[in-house]
Amino acid sequence: MSQLPACPKCESPYAYADGAILVCPECAHEWSPNEPAADESKTFRDANGNELQDGDTVTVIKDLKVKGSSLVVKVGTKVKSIRLTEEGDHDIDCKIDGIGPMKLKTEFVKKA
């Protein structure tokens, strides 16, 4: 019996072949045994394509209405010490002076 590799996502030893791909029954991850293992970490890029890192300072490029409030984050507002996250559809956790904690999308900011 041939030895199949463990799942690259959850390290489960119970992977099985399904045609030309391998499948993990525990996390449902599918991968090709011929492809090199890809780095699963996501790279975050601003509206201009610059790579963002935790702790960067960014500038808002569009007026953004704050949901559930009458406040607006104006164009040109600088946001310091951002934290990048893969949770939900917003990529940036931050605190904006005068508004408080917020979540932003990378498509509405540029690296300062």
List the helices and strands and how they pair.
Layout: E1 16-18, E2 21-23, E3 30-31, E4 44-45, E5 51-52, E6 58-60, E7 64-65, E8 72-73, E9 78-79, E10 83-84, E11 92-96, E12 100-104, E13 109-111
Antiparallel strand pairs: 1-2, 2-3, 4-5, 6-9, 6-13, 7-8, 10-11, 11-12
Question: Would you summarize the structure shown here?
Answer:
This protein has two domains: 1-35, N-terminal domain of TfIIb (Single Sheet); 57-111, SH3 Domains (SH3 type barrels, Roll), CATH 2.30.30.40. It is elongated.
Q: Explain this structure to me?
A:
This protein is mostly beta strands and 112 residues long. It has 2 domains: 1-35, N-terminal domain of TfIIb (Single Sheet), CATH 2.20.25.10; 57-111, SH3 Domains (SH3 type barrels, Roll). The chain contains no helices and 13 strands. The protein has strands at 16-18, 21-23, 30-31, 44-45, 51-52, 58-60, 64-65, 72-73, 78-79, 83-84, 92-96, 100-104, 109-111. Strand 7 (64-65) and strand 8 form a beta hairpin. The N and C termini lie far apart (57 Å). 11% of the residues are buried.
